[in-house]
Amino acid sequence: MQLHGFKTMQLHAVLFDMDGVLFDSMPYHAKAWSQVMTNAGFLFTPEDVYMNEGRTGADTINTASIQQFGVKATQEQIDALCQEKCEIFSTYPPTPRMPAALELVQKVKACGLTPMIVTGSGTPTLLDRIQSNFPGLFKEEHIVTSFNVKRGKPNPGPYLLALEKGGFKPHEAIVVENAPLGVTAGVAARLFTVAANTGPLKDDVLYDAGANIVLPSIKELCDEWEELYNSIKAAN
Ligand code: CA
After folding, report:
1. How far is the CA of 184 from the centre of ligand 1 (A)?
2. CA-based, 20 to 30 A from 227: which of 122, 125, 206, 221?
3. Would you write out the chain's pLDDT as a tens digit for each of its 236 residues?
4. Residue 19 Cα to ligand 1 middle (Å)
5. Could you list which residues have their CB under 5 Å from ion ligand 1?
6. Domain 26-90: which topology?
7. Is the pTM higher than 0.85?
8. Distance between CA atoms of 189 and 98, rounded to whole angstroms?
């Protein structure tokens, strides 16, 4: 927190990323994106999907297009690829909750903290899926999606908007992320950022992005929640 210029931390909220944190959905996203992008002539492996994770669909396509063809994609191309990706994704079985994610959010709420969601996703069924998997735990006004922001992660905008929506200051919230660009966004918003490395990338990628703590899973974070929460309180 000293790095971010804060002397103390009064924790009031936990800002959860969604894919790869609350839902074990990244293997499906990786498969669908790499298939669609490869068909469209891009070099795009499943690992590239994890490295781009957190970006909006449009940003993902534009970044690859600039890197590989030297130009931004057209809006028509972006719309077509996003639609194709959504169609493929919708043929997969419903994504399960990440193991221990429900218990973790319940623990956060039981501590009197506000759980929020900050995601680059913008699927139409997203809110229903959150409410059916985490009933009563996330208020709709405490969810930031790609519909709410112009610039997605790694820009800090989505996390700054979450703070604004919840009425919180950076020293009153922590972030839970799984992806390097998501960590970058959290750190850029001056938030204490916990990474759960639920994907195939090395821990170093998350530390290099600025993560304050890297744990191997959401289950581990859930198991260690009391210790983390107490050490944050004791640090004041
Ligand atoms: Ca994620």
Report:
1. 12
2. 206
3. 666 667 778 999 999 999 999 999 999 999 999 999 999 999 999 999 999 998 888 999 999 999 999 999 999 999 999 999 999 999 999 899 999 999 999 999 999 999 999 998 877 788 899 999 999 999 999 999 988 888 889 999 999 999 999 999 999 999 999 999 999 999 999 999 999 999 999 999 999 999 999 999 999 999 999 999 998 888 76
4. 4
5. 17, 19-20, 178-179
6. DNA polymerase; domain 1 (1.10.150)
7. yes
8. 25
